[in-house]
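Q: Hand in one record:
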Amino acid sequence: MKIICTPLNWLSKEKPNVDFPNMLPEEAEFVGKLQYEGNPASTRSDAYYLSTNKAGTHWFLWNKWFDDSDDEMVYREEILCFCLRKEIDKKNAVFDLLKTYWEWENKNYGTSFSGAKITEAGLLVLNDFRDIAKSIEWV
């Protein structure tokens, strides 16, 4: 199964030929929420969601997060990675998509989710998040 994980601004660059949702669909399923300290001066909170596109051909892992980096202070939504839906069921899709995203962010930014606190469970429960974290070789 091929999972595509991309930089945060990737939609404005080389967009693959896929029917992407423009915004987080209302029927997206809540995966879980975690919080971790990126450095002593900041705390990050990520709320993950799983959706498909209108055609139902792909799974999309989303992040909904509170952006307090400027005066707007708003919630932002972004697609983190995606894969073909026909190749994988929902539970395995969310596990593999989240693992792939965490590996990508760790490799590109040095972020480690291994010490994150799970603040809400959804499609994934605490042990699922722990299993994903244990399966990654953190840099």
